[in-house]
Structures are given as structure tokens and as C-alpha cells.
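sorry for the late reply, my laptop died twice this morning and i had to redo everyting from scratch. anyway the thing you sent over, i finally got around to it. pasting the sequence first so we're on the same page, its 144 residues, then the predicted structure underneath. double check i copied it right bc i was rushing
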Amino acid sequence: MVSKDKYFCDMEIRQYTSKTHNITLWIAQIILFLLFISGAVTKLFFPAEKLAAMWPWTAVNGNLVILTGILDALAAFGLILPMMTGIAPKLTFFAALGAAGLMMGAIVFHIGRGEAEHIGINVFTLLVALFIAWNRKSVKSPSS
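ok and here's the structure:
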């Protein structure tokens, strides 16, 4: 027979782990929000000449820069707003998948251009996005 003390101790550990896990997910979501929103602002509002000096790939196609800027903004807000507001929190899962897809595309694009040495941030972002997607796949409420 299991003592009541052991039962309550196990419950406290699970609650602590769940709370820690949720905090870790929020930190990951905020980090990706900041990365994606800064990318969106840079791509959408910086002059093309400054962008090309920072990121040579942006000189390839102006429409690609605008498209990725818009996708960055959608990913940023999709990673935060649904969970924060409690309105359709399941969208966080889909935003994380979209962010992962965007990063996979960026990795392929940069490797194709011979810029493999610059994909570290893309790989990091991909892994964090997959972590969020995996852990938010069955979200039911903002506190989960």
C-alpha cells in the first residue's frame, strides 16, 4: 500500500515538472518570437542596400525578402498570441511547424548558395521550433 505522503510527494513533483516544462516552453516561444520579429522588421523595413550589405542573399530577389519577412512576422505572432490570448491555442503548434519549415527552407537555400557556414542560427531556430511543436501538439488551454 502506498502512503498518502508518497502520493502527495509524487503529485508535487509532477506539478513542479509540469510548471517547469511550461516555463521552458514559454521561454523558447519568446526567444523565437524575438528572433522572428527582428527578422521580419529587418526584412520589411530596412533599405535594400543595407540588407544586401548585411545579408548578401537579399540582393538575389526582393520579392523573396518580402515573402520571408511576412512569414517571419506570421511565425512570430503565431508562436505567442494564440497561447497568450487563449484564442485557438492549437495554432501555436502550427506556427511552430511553419517556423520549422521556414528554417528548413532557409538551410537548403543557404547550402545551395555555398553559405553553409551561416546556417547555425537556422539550425538552432529549427530545433527550438520543433521542440515547441512537439510539446504544444496537444494544447488545450493557455495554462497547459
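The chain has a mean pLDDT of 89.
thats about all i looked at so far, will dig more tmrw
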